[in-house]
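Lab channel / #folding
Pinned by the channel admin:
"Please post every new chain as: sequence first, then the structure tokens as a reply. Keep commentary short and put observations after the output so the thread stays searchable."

First post following the new format, from NK:
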Amino acid sequence: MSSRRRSGCGGAAEGVPEAQFMLGRLLSEGRGIQADPKAAREWFARAAEAGLAEGQAALAEMLVNGRGGRQDTATAMKLCEEAAAKGHSGAMFAARAMYSGGHDIPVDRALAEHWFRAASELGHGQAQLMLGRYLRSGVAGRQDLREARYWFESAVAQGICGS
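Reply from TO:
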């Protein structure tokens, strides 16, 4: 039986990536319906295959943590990069997290800093905090305390704490 039938949803979502993504979110979070991570992952995959950045980012998250199926960090990274290239700040932040270590992806702190910066410039508060940390410590090869302060202040203005 398809996940569409199991969830009792789907007819309106067929062929509409935004609806596929939203149905995936409902199933993932269990909002108003029984949570079903496997079905959520299938709907996110449909939205991702259609090129929807939100679907790519959501599927990537499920692939990294193994929710609703097997873990696949290489595919997750590819999806994050595709969504990031479309301006999805959450995917930029997630790509940074994977490049900074601990996800079976070769560590590349310079590339991590690049994605922190891109997400920071789009107003992603957590990315601003992390970019500030990178610039303060010089972990990616360049220390800039003045710029670090700017990004810390930007993060704090959004209610993000910790430096």
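NK: The CA atoms of residues 11 and 153 lie 47 Å apart.
TO: also worth noting, Confidence is low (pLDDT under 50) at residues 1-8.
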